[in-house]
Amino acid sequence: MKEKNTKAVIVLNVVGIFLYTVGMRSFAAPARIAPGGASGIAILVNFLTGFPMGLFCALFNFPILAVVLWKKIFPAGFVGKATASIVLLSLMTDLLAPVLPHYQGNALLAALFAGAFMGTGLAMVYLGTSDTGGITMIGLILQKYFPHLKVGTLVSAINMVIVLASGVVYRNIDSILYAIVTVYVSGLFMDRLVNQANTKDLIIVMSECTDKVRCVFLDEHKGITILKGEGGYTSETQRVILGAAGKADCSKIQEKIRRVDPKALIIVAEASNVVGKGFGRML
After folding, report:
1. Residue 277: is it exposed, middle or buried by C-beta count within 10 angstroms (0-12/13-18/19+)?
2. Which pTM does this prediction carry?
3. Which tens digits make up the pLDDT trace of 100-119?
4. What is the DSSP string of 127-172?
């Protein structure tokens, strides 16, 4: 199981970083769009000086990682994965530049696709329990202490400062407007994908075989809460089992409950966000 999770983390990070690189290299940079973050600053610095974007991202992020590791804000394992992601992003950004196509068409389409690729890439890296550093690292630091914050929205707000600076560098207000579109779309994609991954099914079970039903949840390694209820018609006291699980696990749990108690009343509702007790936390 651990090996499978490790493979999933690697795939999510590699694919996510590749998509992010495509959004930045193929759409944002050629259209003179600086969509915030370390990458946005890198695009502006590259435009002004020709300094490699990937190398700039690495130099920008390593001091942040050093502080995080020194202050022990995140576990050393996470910092290690984040370092690997940043190095991979830096290498892909510079080494794939001659290979990736540069879109030279409609600027609005470039802004939309840059946001879609970058937001999807960031979400995949985030779900792979890693980070590309920069402004998103600050977002993760805040989310560690305030888990209800939407990372994508928070990052978008901070990035607006860099977006406004891009108008000064490019001397073109259109660059600001297109960058705002990119940041908005990126945050939208990131929030949607991350929240979708955190969506769980809330399972409420009323059964005369409570102990057997409880064993079903425990066999699937799912925590439950047993509430005391009262029948509205019979006024009889009964126990109500409350639990949460992913959609795939939920189907399996329902099947098993039906086997141990065919008469059980099972209510399943979608919980858009489940936080705490092992749910909805990256670290």
Report:
1. exposed
2. 0.76
3. 999 999 999 999 999 999 99
4. HTT----THHHHHHHHHHH-TTS-HHHHHHHHHHHHHHHHHHHHT-
